[in-house]
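re: ur msg from earlier - yeah i can do the adenosine-5'-diphosphate complex, just paste it... oh wait u already did. ok heres what im feeding in:
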Amino acid sequence: MPASTPVLRVQGLTKHYGGVKALTDAQFSLLPGEHAAIVGDNGAGKSTFVRLLTGVEQPSAGSIQLDGAQVQFSSPLDAREQGMETVYQTLALAEDLDVPANIFLGREITRLNLGPLSILNHRAMRQQSVDMLATTGVRIQDMSAPLRGMSGGQRQCVAIARAAGFAKKLIILDEPTAALGVQETARVEEIIKGLKQRGVPLIIISHNLRQVFDLVDRIWVFRQGRIICQRRTVDTNPQEIVGLITGAIDPASLSSHEEAVC
Ligand SMILES: Nc1ncnc2c1ncn2[C@@H]1O[C@H](COP(=O)(O)OP(=O)(O)O)[C@@H](O)[C@H]1O
Ligand SMILES: [Mg+2]
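and the outut:
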């Protein structure tokens, strides 16, 4: 496989709900090791795009390729099994379970696999959880305490550590810090920078342009159900991105306009 083969390549992705054109003809790609941001106003089609990418919904038209191979995810589980991990804004963690149980939720390690009578290998799950958290730099004092007592930031770190531990191809983060405080946000951003250093490709949806400019290589602007352009972070600035998001700047008017053709 040539080094330039995108990890993810999306062509003509479209989703219409009756008369509502939530997403039309989206072209998108993510290079190996690249971190990209998706930005756009409310209703621009960002969540629709992620739902189509991750198998939550099926597209009306278009195609998705992972590492050069056409894929069609029938469900989020299917997407996960093929190496794509997603952390949603509303955390899908179990309050009453401890960290290892949450990390291995739905993919428990067993000592003896007898279907419903399987014996779980708690020791292995605990050890692997410690390792996963360590690679992302997340520190949890008491691994056997239920998540209920943890802060939003700690929980988000567990969710990202889980995604990072299992993602074979890429990670998608949907507004990972929207509900977090300043320090917790900084912690999550450190984890994301660590993933960049490890070469794990990542897509982040964020309204926080400071964060976007700090973290990513490329910014994709969504507007009114279309991807209107992509800009390399080094070639743009927050004012320009705001102008593109609001429509004050016409993407065709940019001197170094990069077509959203991948
Ligand atoms: N299930 C749905 N049924 C009908 N319209 C929808 C549905 N989901 C999203 N939409 C519409 O599609 C457009 C894009 O929505 P969305 O992808 O949620 O935008 P964003 O995440 O950028 O805020 C909006 O106009 C929204 O109202
Ligand atoms: Mg949304």
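cool cool. The pocket of adenosine-5'-diphosphate (ligand 1) is lined by residues 17, 20, 22, 40, 42-48, 222 (CB under 6 Å). ping me if u need the other ligands too
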